[in-house]
Design brief:
- By secondary structure, this protein is mainly α.
- The protein is built from 16 helices and no strands.
- The chain has one domain.
- It is about 80% helix and about 0% strand.
- Helix 2 packs across helix 5, helix 8 packs across helix 9 and helix 11 crosses helix 12.
- It is found in: Cell membrane.
- It comes from Paenibacillus polysaccharolyticus.
C-alpha cells in the first residue's frame, strides 16, 4: 500500500521536471555563450551580463557584481567561475556543471580540431581574426559603460577605478591584479566603513558548508600532493595533470595570464614544441569561450584525445573547487557593513581592471588604423544604442575585419 502525503508526492513530481528544465536551460544558454563569446575573460563578463542579467534576470545587478568581485579575487579563470557560480545558483551543483560544459565545450572541440588538422598553420594575420579583436574592444567598452554607471557612480569609486586602471597599465608584475583588488577593498572599507548597511538580496547558494570546506581542503591537498605524486610515479598523464592543475591554481587575472605560465611548464620540458605552442596560441585568440581551453590544444598535441581530456579537466578543476568552496560563505560576508564597504571598493577596482584591459591588450592589438577605429565606432553604436544582439556584432566584426584587411 502506498503511504505518505499525496500533496507531497505531487509536489515532488512537479519539482523534478522543473529541475531538469532549469538544467537544460542553463546548458543551452551557456552553449550559446560558448559559441559567441569572443575576446577573452574581460569581454566574457559583458556577454554574461547581457545574457544572464539583462535579458533573463537570473540574478540581480548587485549580486552579479559581488560574484564578479569574488571571482576576480580567486585564482583561476574568472569568467568561467562567474558562469559556474550563476549555474550553481540557478540549478544547483549540476547547474554549475552544465554552465561550464556549455561554455567550455565549443572552444575545446575547435582547438582540438586545430591540434589535429591545422597544426602549424599561420592564422595570426587573417582578416577575420582582426575583426574578432575589434569585436572584443566593442564588447568590453559596452561592459565598462554599463558597469561603471552602477559600480562607480560617485567621485570616490570613479577615482578608485581610474587609479586601479592606471596602476594595472604601469605595474604589470605577477599578482599585480590581486594586489590592486585588495587595495581597492581597503580603500572602500576605509571610505565607507561608517555607512549604514545596505540590505542585499540573498544569493541562492544550494551548497552545504560541509561540502564547501571539503572542496577547499581538496584544492589545497591536490596542490601539495600532485607534485609529490609526479616525482614518485613517472607517468606522462600525471605530469600533464600536475602542470595544468598548478597553472589553473596559480593564475590571477584570467586566461591571458595563463599562456606564458603554460609555456614555462611545457615548452622547456619538450611536452610541446615552441612552434606548436605558438600555433595554438594564435588559434586560441580566434575561438570563442574561455582562453583556458588552450590546455585542450596542448593536451591534444602531447597525448592526443586523452591528453585533451586530462588537460581540460585539470586546468578547470581548481576553478570548480574554489568557487564551490567560497560561495556558501559569501552571503554572510557581503551582508557585513565592513565587507559592504570593501565590496564597493572592489567593484570599482574591477571596473578599473576592465578599463585597463580595454587599452592593453585589446585596443593596442585591435585598433591599428583609422579604418579599425571606424569599425569600432559603428559596432559600438549598433550594440549600445540600436541594441543589436552580440552574435550580429560578431558577424559584422568579422566582415569588417576582412574588409579592412583588404584596404
Amino acid at each position: 500500500m502506498k503511504t505518505g502525503n499525496p500533496a507531497s508526492d505531487d509536489q515532488d513530481q512537479a519539482v523534478t521536471p522543473n529541475r531538469w528544465r532549469a538544467l537544460w536551460e542553463v546548458l543551452i544558454v551557456a552553449a550559446k555563450l560558448g559559441l559567441t563569446s569572443f575576446g577573452g575573460p574581460t569581454a566574457h563578463l559583458g556577454y554574461f551580463h547581457n545574457a544572464y542579467i539583462r535579458k533573463r534576470k537570473w540574478m540581480d545587478e548587485q549580486s552579479y557584481a559581488d560574484l564578479v568581485a569574488l571571482c576576480q579575487f580567486l585564482p583561476g579563470p574568472a569568467s568561467s567561475q562567474v558562469g559556474i557560480g550563476i549555474g550553481v545558483m540557478r540549478a544547483g551543483l549540476l547547474g554549475g556543471l552544465m554552465a561550464w560544459i556549455g561554455f567550455t565545450l565549443p572552444s575545446v572541440l575547435i582547438l582540438v580540431a586545430f591540434a589535429f588538422i591545422l597544426k602549424g598553420y599561420d592564422v595570426g594575420h587573417a582578416g577575420w581574426i582582426s575583426g574578432l579583436k575589434i569585436v572584443a574592444v566593442v564588447i568590453v567598452a559596452h561592459a565598462i559603460l554599463g558597469m561603471a554607471q552602477k559600480l562607480a557612480p560617485d567621485k570616490v569609486r570613479i577615482t578608485i577605478a581610474v587609479l586601479v586602471a592606471t596602476a594595472a597599465l604601469l605595474w604589470t608584475v605577477p599578482y599585480s591584479q590581486v594586489i590592486l583588488i585588495l587595495f581597492s577593498g581597503f580603500i572602500g572599507w576605509w571610505m565607507y566603513r561608517n555607512v549604514p548597511v545596505t540590505p542585499v538580496i540573498k544569493m541562492n547558494v544550494p551548497i552545504r558548508r560541509s561540502l564547501a570546506v571539503l572542496c577547499l581542503i581538496t584544492f589545497a591537498g591536490l596542490l601539495i600532493l600532485l607534485p609529490i605524486l609526479r616525482q614518485a610515479i613517472n607517468m606522462e598523464w600525471i605530469a600533464l595533470f600536475d602542470s595544468m592543475y598548478r597553472a589553473g591554481s596559480m593564475v590571477f587575472g584570467g586566461g591571458h595570464v595563463v599562456l606564458p605560465l603554460l609555456e614555462q611548464e611545457l615548452v622547456p620540458h619538450g611536452v610541446v614544441s615552441k612552434d606548436d605552442f605558438l600555433a595554438g596560441y594564435g588559434a586560441t585568440q580566434a575561438v570563442p569561450g574561455p582562453l583556458f581551453t588552450f590546455a585542450a590544444y596542448l593536451g591534444a598535441v602531447s597525448m592526443g584525445g586523452a591528453g585533451a581530456f586530462i588537460a581540460t579537466i585539470a586546468i578547470f578543476l581548481p576553478a570548480f573547487l574554489l568557487i564551490i568552496g567560497a560561495l556558501p560563505f559569501w552571503n554572510v560576508l557581503r551582508g557585513n557593513s565592513h565587507m559592504q564597504g570593501a565590496l564597493a571598493g572592489i567593484n570599482a577596482g574591477v571596473v578599473g581592471l576592465l578599463l585597463a584591459a580595454l587599452y592593453q591588450p585589446l585596443w593596442t592589438t585591435a585598433v591599428l588604423s583609422p579604418a579599425d577605429f571606424a569599425v569600432v565606432c559603428i559596432l559600438f553604436v549598433l550594440l549600445n544604442f540600436w541594441k543589436c544582439p552580440p552574435w550580429i556584432i560578431v558577424l559584422l566584426g568579422i566582415v569588417g575585419g576582412m574588409i579592412v584587411n583588404q584596404i
